[in-house]
């Protein structure tokens, strides 16, 4: 098989962005590494016939699955068609999935991998709304609802929709180095690693954006200064409100208390530093506003179930080549 060749599986009810997002990343990587032969890509449906996406778009595959060449990376997108899949598609995945060097699912494509037995005994993730379904249907799968993507050996599963772009960028970085992946990310105007890499929703996205400008400014300031004084009194002064009025207004407009919001931001910042830098735990704890490594350790164990050192071991980004 050609080096790092790609095969994207198509079916009726596929989510179009699950297909086009990763495809645009890998296609962009060809330009970034100045190699038009990088990531040779084919798409295939069961019979080779066009498929209709969940949004109504029609996609025309290159070949049928029966005629598809064996690929280095097999990409299985998600969509409504994963809920009651064609048994023939599941059987094809069961027979051919184990031979891929990398087996990748996007969003609810994990349901297809699960139905084919390809996630048995593995860790996996999927769209947050389908995590319970995946866990219930396949008890032997350890479903992790928080990560943007999970790698277990050569099987990689990603979270909802645009997380397929995150995963594809990570694979480009693994294959060709950080600069190539960063070039692609800049072209697509996306994060190379979105803030809070392992959370499907960053702290800023999981809370609502405040309506009033002073409160929005406070949200922005917290995100940019996690190591500063984030007490209610200090934040209220920045918004020119009394502490009591500020706390009430902030919660009403964002859905969380100022303290909880600040806690999420600090955790997110610490996670990003652990993932992307070689800074020691003590330095990270100071930069993220925890003050002491022990305070940060307690926050990590309470929220993520593992101490910072273990988190770094599991999720530290690979060095660019």
TrEMBL record:
PANTHER family: ARAC-FAMILY TRANSCRIPTIONAL REGULATOR (PTHR43130), HTH-TYPE TRANSCRIPTIONAL REGULATOR RV1931C (PTHR43130:SF3). InterPro entries: Class_I_gatase-like, DJ-1/PfpI, Homeodomain-like_sf, HTH_AraC, INH-QAR. This is GlxA family transcriptional regulator. Pfam families: DJ-1_PfpI (PF01965), HTH_18 (PF12833). Residues 216-314 form the HTH araC/xylS-type domain. It comes from Streptomyces yaizuensis. Keywords: Transcription, Transcription regulation.
């Amino acid at each position: 098989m050609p080096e790092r060749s790609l095969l994207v599986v198509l079916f009726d009810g596929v989510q179009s962005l699950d297909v086009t997002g990763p495809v645009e990343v890998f296609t962009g990587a060809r330009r970034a590494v100045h190699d038009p032969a990088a990531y040779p890509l084919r798409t295939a449906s069961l019979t080779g016939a066009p498929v209709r996406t969940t949004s109504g778009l029609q996609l025309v595959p290159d070949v049928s699955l029966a005629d598809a060449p064996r690929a280095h990376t097999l990409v299985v997108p998600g969509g409504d068609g994963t809920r009651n899949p064609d048994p023939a598609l599941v059987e094809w995945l069961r027979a051919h999935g184990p031979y891929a060097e990398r087996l990748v699912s996007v969003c609810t494509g994990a349901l297809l991998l699960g139905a084919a037995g390809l996630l048995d005994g593995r860790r996996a993730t999927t769209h947050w709304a389908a995590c319970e379904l995946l866990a219930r249907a396949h008890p032997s799968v350890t479903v992790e609802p928080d990560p943007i993507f999970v790698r277990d050996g050569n099987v990689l599963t990603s979270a909802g929709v645009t997380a397929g772009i995150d995963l594809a960028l990570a694979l480009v970085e693994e294959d060709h180095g950080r600069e190539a992946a960063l070039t692609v990310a800049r072209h697509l105007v996306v994060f190379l690693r979105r803030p809070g890499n392992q959370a499907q929703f960053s702290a800023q996205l999981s809370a609502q954006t405040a309506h009033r400008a002073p409160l929005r400014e406070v949200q922005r300031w917290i995100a940019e200064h996690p190591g500063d004084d984030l007490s209610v009194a200090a934040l209220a002064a920045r918004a020119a409100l009394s502490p009591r009025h500020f706390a009430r207004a902030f919660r009403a407009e964002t859905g969380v208390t100022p303290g909880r919001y600040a806690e999420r931001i600090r955790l997110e910042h610490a996670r990003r530093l652990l993932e992307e830098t070689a800074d020691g735990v003590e330095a990270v704890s100071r930069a993220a506003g925890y003050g002491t490594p022990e305070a940060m350790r307690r926050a990590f164990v309470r929220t993520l179930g593992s101490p910072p050192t273990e988190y770094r071991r599991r999720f530290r980004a690979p060095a660019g080549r």
